[in-house]
Amino acid sequence: MPPALAGILPVLPTPFAADGAIDPAALGRVTAFALNAGAAGVVFPGFASEVDNLTGDERETLLREVVRVVAGRVPVVAGASAPSAAEAIGYCRQARELGIAHVMIQAPKSVGVDKAAVAAFYREITEAVPELEIVLQNAPAPRGSDLKPDVLIEIVRGNPAITYLKEETIPAGPAITTILRDKPPHLKGVLGGGGARYIIDEYVRGACGAMPAAEFTDVHAALDRAFREGATGTARDLYMRTLPLLLIQANLRMAFTKYVLTRRGILTNQVCRAPLPALDAIERTEIDAWLARIADLLTPTASLQAAE
Is residue 1 part of a domain? Predict the structure, then answer.
């Protein structure tokens, strides 16, 4: 039986070289950073990985590097979202060949929000690749379809392969409460999204973990440990101290993640393929100022750069 998904499972960014090519070695460093920072699993590729700007071959090359570095120590959740069920099935088969047990799939917007249509999309995938467990990703509009809790519950009830939900509508809390109250027995848990900007509310409501971006994995892992040990006050303090940075990240997205990872010595550049504006001098100064305020929470880089 695959290991449970719980705790902090960061979505890893895709590093690029100065010429815009993918940089698998840099992704290996980011993966090692996440593991040594306390990640309970890793996710790749996802929206925070600039997945829409990767070719199929690039996705496979990078996913192989993640699997190599993880070496079975924690679960790898492979992103398998695609414009069609046939393409998603192809990504699922790649994941299975790499020994991955969990895939995360968001139904394309072309499928719509009709319960029967969305259920048929997931059923086609699970019939083709029955060996995998699916994390159903429910993202907000405009990126996702913003499916309602009652629709999600019925889709899951009819598909035993869907064992987790990643609920990242904003805010996700009320949906998590409804889903967990009425969940089918085979649903193992609900994971939070939204960049950990609502993580305490999600955890209080019963979320089994969260899938934020990777730049603060050590702080988020400490928050997760504190909450699970009953030190809710400590968890709230960690949340409050990181929230200003997470609010900046909400707007700057991957550019923020890569800037922080560069400042932390994990990456060497901030190249993005996604159509994001470069950080200006004021944004960089503000991020640096807020990073200085949580310097005591950030594990020294040398301690997080163990051999890959």
Answer: no
pTM here?
0.95
What tokens does 27 get?
């992704």
Domain contains 2: no
- The position carrying tokens 């990643």 is 166
Q: Per residue in 57-77, pLDDT tens?
A: 999 999 999 999 999 999 999
Residue with tokens 């700057």: 252
d(CA 77, CA 7): 13
Would you state the structure tokens that stand for residue 234, as one six-digit string? 């400590």
* Structural domain span for residue 293: 7-304
Residue 17, in any domain of the structure: yes
**Does 101 map to a domain?**
yes
> Which strands, in side-by-side order, build the sheet including 189-192?
7-8, 209-210, 189-192, 162-167, 133-138, 102-105, 76-79, 42-44
What is the number of domains present in the chain? 1
Q: How far apart are CA 247 and CA 196, in angstroms?
A: 10
CB proximity list for 299: less than 8 A, separation 6 or greater: 36, 37, 218
